[in-house]
Amino acid sequence: MASLHSGSKLKELLVIETDRFTLSIKGLPVNKNNDGKLHNIKQKRSYVSVESFVDQSYQVKIFDPKSPSGLRPYYYEGMPPCFFEQTNYEVVLEVNDGNNDYKLTHDNPHLDNAVTPTGSSGQIYTGVINFHNDIGFSRFVLEENGVKIFSFEIEVFPSKLDYIEDFYQMLQEVNQEIYNLAFDFLRRTYFSAQITKEETPSEAEFYTIISAIFKEFYNSLERVKNQPHHKIVPSNKVVRPEKAKKNNKDTLKWLQKRPNIMQKSSHSGIAINNNNYIPRKILDTKKEFSYDTYENRFLKWILLVIDKKLKRFSEKLNNEQLEVKEEVQNEINKMRSKLRHFINYSFLQFAGRLTRLESSSLVMQMGQGYRDVYKYYLMMKKGLNLTSDFFDISIKDVALLYEYWCFLKLNSLLRNKYQLEYNDLISLDRSGIIVKLKKGRESQLTYRDPKTNEQFTVAYNRAFNNLPTVGQHPDNILSIKKSDSNVRYQYIFDAKYRLDTSIEYKQKFNQIGPPVDTINAMHRYRDAIVANNKHKEDYTRDIFGAFVLFPHNNEQKFAGLEGGKPSKFYDSISEISIGALPFLPSQAKLVKSFLDDLLLESSDTAFERSVIQQGTRNYFDKQQQISDVLIGPLRRAEQLELCLNNNMYYTYLDQVKNQLGLLRYIALYQSKRKFQNQQEQGIFYYGKIQEYYIIPRKEIKEVKAASQPNELAVKFIVDEWKKLDKPIKPQGYGPQGPQFTNWYLFREAETYPELHLTWEEMRLLKELRRIENQAQFKFPTEMIKSDERFELIEFPELIIERVDQERFKVITDYDEEIFKFQDLRGQARVILKNIIEIWKLGVSNKK
Q: Quick one: 727 and 845 in the same domain?
């Protein structure tokens, strides 16, 4: 059995007293995670409803901190929220007759029969209940010897979400995103050749849909009728004083405005100037149940709309004299008859006319029956029949709802900016469109960036089972394939509906946030999920970052943008690529910005998010400094064919002797002086050096005699000449004799000047090209020497100007700032983000 917190001062939150029993529920009136400051919980009213199935008198009392006893009578006017998810409450049931058997039942198996007898008298029943993640209305039924005698319903509130702004919005966004994906599926699969702008189905399509779902639709209406939504409204009537049942301050105000109805009395009355007065009439105030609520008006309006559409379809069949079976008209008449009967003879007869449509209603999203009626109405309205286990989930399980919402919201953010190419979340069979979103089953959506042509996927519940140790099952994985790399960069976004608000946690990590064990799980994911290289025996890490998504209502504060220190788990994202991000319908800016960063950055920046083994950087730094590619200019146009046919290249020794032992590749440069056709200018061919010979120039027999036959030359033999998929174009520049570059620059370069950049300069160029590919270089001379460096790199609305060997200046029409080249190694993400922001600001100001 669950236990309550030791040392906590429990209060009686609800007491029900009847002729047969007394039931009380004790607990803390304020949730530890939600004291009214974290969310707008104090602005919400909670309601208790009770029903007696036998003839007995009863009284309901609720918690009131202002009352001396801590309780006050409940008159259905609402109360502050007292019951929360994931909280223990003590239930005590005291019965008058210990010989009878009592059971407190509930639909939730965790709460059903949680209260059991204690002691020998048989008159005391106790138990501790916890609603776990089930929120909303929760109904208990008390049975005596197997017969229902009483029921009560309380409202359970979320402790980590704003009930109105976040919880309802999550429900709405989940439904909306499912419909959006389904319509996108239909559009791409069936309607690509004939897309129409109609938002509503035709009468025939409408009839087909309603015929298939009318039984379920009407059953939902019956469930609504069993427990319709209502409200308590004041009812005032002017009566004779002896007939008044209840007076209050409103009665006194009413009398003060009507002194003319006062008459003198020789007996008791209201004393005024030594005379007694009594009113001839008085205002009698009382409260009544009313079914005239917005939700019931909306429900009535839905039924009237459906009836009207059925009537129009029936008339169309008659007017066009179509050969329709008689049972179709009979079926229409039956449906219309049931709808009109429900409108005229149920509680809806007391509902008024709908005068406006509101954007939100928790009852329509959560209320028993209301939710299903609304779902079926949307199907009929949009011409879409969604069938799936997804719609059968208990929306009261807020943790599961949050997990689904996180996956769908991530995709919604991406779909607004990128092209959705593949979606296995939606499929089609004979029963209709199937939504395959279900915990434990993998779902995947694939996107393409139209600007970079890069592809990426978001997968839900992907299982990693074939691992050296233990299988892992993260919630959401973003997998990105960068155009400049064969590596697939994967990032985990794990939904955790958990929040630690303890003082110790805040002192240690600066802000409230996800529990420590959820962060440890991110470390486990990154270390445990590895990939085996097919042709090697070693493993490589597949996960470049892992992040907890959790409910927090102030992302700016969490990030330290509203004063105070940021959470350590926010800072750790940029430090070690593990941490946490707030994620709610009203708090999605940080996640959106982070997704944009991940998709915009190059493979180099993505790689730097990973934590590398000590010594790795020195190892790669040594390799990057090696100039192992010879850029060999051709002295004559016919030399190209000679080199290609003989798998060779030659040049004089004094031009290459300092790098000779380091060279691994040769690239042939075709200059504009030797090749007049622009389509033939640049670097088209390269080859790997197999061997080389140092011999006098005259001994190279494949070529004609030279002016210096005895001078030493180098004859390179290559394995084979390979043609570049995309040639390196001159862009107005070429080499001053043989030049050297490294393999990294050679693979990345699009134009010849780029072969003379350093690693840091190429890194800067790559990142900026992801935004705008048009880059123009300026070097001191047209024929670039080995010791020359660029002076300017020009993009539209942006100039990169070299200040000296260590610094460069970023210039726009509205701003300029100086940076250090060396910072592009240690602080690349920060520097590059600043430059991009300066650039974007300059462009927006110009507009």
A: no
